[in-house]
Every structure is written in structure tokens, then in C-alpha cells.
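Before relying on records like the one below, remember that each one covers exactly one chain. Contacts with other chains, cofactors or solvent are not represented anywhere in the record.
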Amino acid sequence: MPTPMLLVLDEAANVVRWRDLPKLYSHFGSRGIVVLTILQSWAQGVRCWGEDGMRALLSATNVLTLGAGLKDTGFLRDISELVGSHHELVTSTSRGRRADSGTESTSLTTEATLTASDIAAMPRGRALVFTSGHRSTLVRTTPWMERADADLIRESIAAHAPTQSGTTTAGPRLRAVPSDEEDNAA
């Protein structure tokens, strides 16, 4: 596609339930179709697509954003491993019986940069972002109502929110046509 298409699949494991989504994820990217899949948890995706399906989905993801509130320890350990480790210099000192005796040694140790419990304890307003080919980044999020364009967003919500009658003020709603009615719909 010359202009990328964006598919936003909010509550993808509850509402959309597109069984073939993990198989199609990388194919969409090659076609210029950006798919944004929003899940509440790893377990929610596993219930929908199975463990293999979720691993396939995760492997084909170019950007992975994880917010606060995650509790699945197995998933958190996997994420901790993806974040990686760093080296720390550790100094040890031992003292002898005499005041002038003792040794000091320095060694290099490897530590997890973020443990599973660190990730689980992320506060609201923080997210962990992974992008293809780069190390993970801890970011501060900004709620839309605090952004400079918040008034425009409010106007859009007001214009497109369903009214009591189920219509919007933005114009006619589209309706899905079952495949057997396609020829008669024109």
C-alpha cells in the first residue's frame, strides 16, 4: 500500500477473536498494513490463540509496549530476559585481626537490568517499549487529556460518540453486508 493502513484491534482477544491473526501478522506488515493489537495480559492472548499463537504474534511484533499492572510471573520473567542484563563492579573487603591487615577485591558481576518483580511494580504512567533492532526503553506516558491537542480529541469524541438513538453526529454509519447480500446491496 502506498499509504499505510492502520488496524486498531482493541480488546482483540475478547471482541475480535480473529483466530488467524498470529499467522497473518508479518504478512500484513509486508503489505503496508500496520496492526495494533491491544491485550490486557499474556494469558488473555493465550486463551484466544494458544501459547504457540501468542509466541508467533510476539515474534512478528515490531513494537511491543507493556504498561503497568502485569502479574503473570512466567511472562514477566520472559520480558526481564528480553530487557537483558548489565555488568556491575562489586568490591569486597575483608579485615584481618590486626588493624593493618585485610584485602580488597573487585569483581565484575552480571545482573538483570529489570527483574520480573521490577516490571510488575511499574507504576501507572510508565511503560516498557521494545522496538525491532533496539534495546528496550522505559518511557513516561502522557494521558491524552493532558496533551496539547486534548480539545481536538474531545471534539472528535463528541462528534463520533453514539447518541441515545445509536447514531453519531458525524454522519451515516456503515453496516456490514453478509456475503450472500453483496450482489443485492448496490
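Strands lie at 5-9, 33-37, 63-66, 85-95, 102-112, 126-131, 137-140.
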